[in-house]
Amino acid sequence: MSAVELANAKRDLEAARCELREALRSPSKKALKRVTAFSQHVEITEGAWARVLSPIIHTLMGERNSDGFLIQEPLNAAQQLVYASIHGFLDYCVGFNDDQLAAVESATILDGLSAPADVRKVESFDSAKQWVTAHILKRKAHAYSYMVNLEDASAKFDAADAAFFRLAAIGCQLVTQNRSVSVASETLKLAMMRLSLVPSVNCKFARDLRKMHSKLVMDDLPYKLGNYFGVFLDLLEVMDSYRSAQDLGVALDSTWDMWDRLLKLEKKQAWQDGGRWLGLGGLECSDGNCKQNSSALQILMNQVWTLMGRITNTQIDNARTEAKVAMPESFQKTKDKWEQTLRAYISVLEGSLEHADRIGLTESRQSQIASGTSRPAAVLELVGGLRSAHSMRALAMSGSDSHYLTRCHQFQQAICGRCGASEPVLGSFQKCGACKTVRYCGTDCQRKHWGAGHRDECKARSQRAP
């Protein structure tokens, strides 16, 4: 890690501190211009230190993303040095922003001034004080966001949760006071990471977060934000049940319900509101020009759709696991389940392309999904051609998709229902004339299997057949 770069970042932040002090002592006509310069200076500085810290935390997380990480193995000496250095810097950033908030709160020069015109176009900030307060809170939240990642990477989960809830509290403050949910969206992203990264998470984490935001929805939020956070909270709950291996079918139905609710918000244009709600995703400013990043609605839609993909993919894995031990009596039920999960996954992949603009998919990601759809489709065709529990087990236990997809012909060959012989030519074995589900290599095996118990199975299957 470059200590020089972090030292430079601290120096730039100190310069910004002086900038704000001078701005708050300026005549009112110049104050807003100087405060705008301060906000841009801090944003540039933050971008600089983020570019330093991001790869370091990412590398640390990669080193710890192993069995040692999951069992909370202590940091080694080198990792402890990195952790202490980054943590100290982030503590400084939090303190810096607290100092700026206190300075703005006590200043009277901003009273009566409006927020910059380019900001008012895309965010619901009317007064200059409201705008600059929200700006500083977002910077403080950004430092906490990095702290959550650092603590998680270091397996200091209690500290990570403490930093996370401080971040969530800032999100609540911004939502209620400034009608901005950019920090709340960051909270959602980190909560999803927390619930997916750490298998040992208990329900208390999700329950505490839900309690915090539920009060927000019930007491303080207007209609549109209440609906947004309703989906937000439901998404966390479904994510928690998904990680707890509860009923995946119920979880999938819940994600579709959330998606329908978000589409209704979009249809009613509750996220437009004369342009002011376009700012919910946050602003990116450079050289005095601000452009809008992805909206909070788009981010939430992306999270819901991503969870759909995870759930359906897990359902496929579960169905394949069951197929590995499939018996003749459960063959048809297991096959139907495997086909159903594959169809659901393909539907999610195709739907993500249909809603690519809504969920913010890049062209490269769309291309990956389009090419990736062919694999589950080929597996679905293969599973549909299975004719026995033996061939199903062989398919399910194959080492990799590419391995068993190259052996389609072999797996589609029938196996004699009695002796287990494979048909020498595809389609050469004859089906049982009644149930149409079992094939035999010859009449001798058919007679023996009938007397050995197929008589009862056949009657049951024939009654189920349409």
TrEMBL record:
All copies of domain MYND-type, residue ranges: 416-458
Keywords carried by this UniProt record: Metal-binding, Zinc, Zinc-finger
Keyword Cytoplasm on entry: no
Top-level taxon of the source organism: Eukaryota
Designated name of the protein: MYND-type domain-containing protein
SUPFAM superfamilies: HIT/MYND zinc finger-like
Gene Ontology molecular function, alphabetical: zinc ion binding
